[in-house]
Amino acid sequence: MKHMTKALIVSLILVSGVAVAKTGVQDPTVKARQDLMGTVAMNTKVLGDMAGGKAPFDAIAAEGARTALAAAAAEIPTRFKPQATDPVSEAKPEIWISWADFVTKANGLAQAAAAIDTTSVDGVKAGMGGVGAACKACHSVYRM
């Protein structure tokens, strides 16, 4: 039953990330990227709220969010590889000009997410510093 609960939580978190994506996107490649980044944002929020005391610590939910975040982060290079534009896209063209650096930064997020210790609130707090730094490193260069 414990594994079933984890699977359910992970599934709900993955699906709920899609709801935060922008509307009005015309290019399906850009839509897929935004859905993925919505999943990253949603799971980062779950963990961040626990770390910041805005939500009670729940080890199962934290592990589900960590797993979903790491999986989504690992998909970033694949989803961004085809260069595509859309009026509502926040991706800068520098992504494709500096592709290797972009992939390195995306991999940094995947590694930071995978390293989060979800067995305690202190572990989540400690891990969120790396996640935040990885997000900032990429967004400061590659997001409008």
Structure description:
- The structure is a single chain.
- By secondary structure, the protein is mainly α.
- The protein has one domain: Cytochrome c/b562 (Four Helix Bundle (Hemerythrin (Met), subunit A), Up-down Bundle), CATH 1.20.120.10.
- The protein has helices at residues 2-18, 28-51, 59-80, 94-97, 99-114, 121-142.
- It starts with a helix and ends with a helix.
- The model is unreliable at 1-20 (pLDDT under 50).
Q: In CATH terms, what is the architecture? A: Up-down Bundle
Q: Approximately how much beta-strand content do the residues carry? A: under 5%
CATH topology: Four Helix Bundle (Hemerythrin (Met), subunit A)
Low-confidence stretches: 1-20
Number of strands: 0
Query: What would CATH call the class?
Result: Mainly Alpha
Sheet with the most strands, sense and barrel status:
none
Query: N-to-C SSE series?
Result: HHHHHH
CATH superfamily: Cytochrome c/b562
**Average of pLDDT:** 88
Give the count of structural domains.
1
Helical run tally: 6
Fraction in helix: over 70%
Derived structural class: mainly alpha
First CA to last CA: what distance? 44 Å
Shape: elongated
Whole-number radius of gyration? 15 Å
